[in-house]
Amino acid sequence: DVQLQASGGGLVQPGGSLRLSCAGSGFTFSSYAMSWLRQAPGKGFEWVSNISGGGGLTSSADSVKGRFTISRDNAKATLFLQMNSLKPEDTGVYYCRLPAGQRGQGTQVTVSS
Question: Which of 97, 104, 103 is nearest to 33 (CA)?
Fold first, then answer.
């Protein structure tokens, strides 16, 4: 079975940093592009960032460009999201997702003073 487990969230002050991880199993990790999504309280899902299977191509939403960096370690079947200069509007549950839509449990990120 495909499994995706995000971790690394927490409570951080505005301007702070967090690094999220997503461990994948049950599929050939390096063969698939992957994405990070987030869902703010009471709102729908928002796409955050994509990365190609080999890691050479990335794209990000304008709202996080220049602050968030997506990366992956295919040897460890792990996806990352480095989040810097965090803002209160970055608060939400963050999920990793495969192209077909599978996503596991998310990790909560709360940016507050």
Answer: 97
**Residue 47 and residue 37 in contact, taking contact as beta carbons nearer than 8 Å:** yes
Phi-psi region of 77 (alpha: psi -120 to 50; beta: other; left: phi over 0): left
Nearest residue to 22 (alpha-carbon basis) of 105, 103, 87, 80: 80
Tokens of 52: 């190609």
Distance, CA of 112 to CA of 18 (rounded, Å): 13
- The one-letter amino acid at 2: V
Q: What is the pLDDT of residues 39-82, one digit of tens each?
A: 999 999 999 999 999 999 999 999 999 999 999 999 999 999 99
**C-alpha span between 54 and 50 (Å, rounded):** 12
- Residue 79 neighbours by CB distance under 10 Å: 26
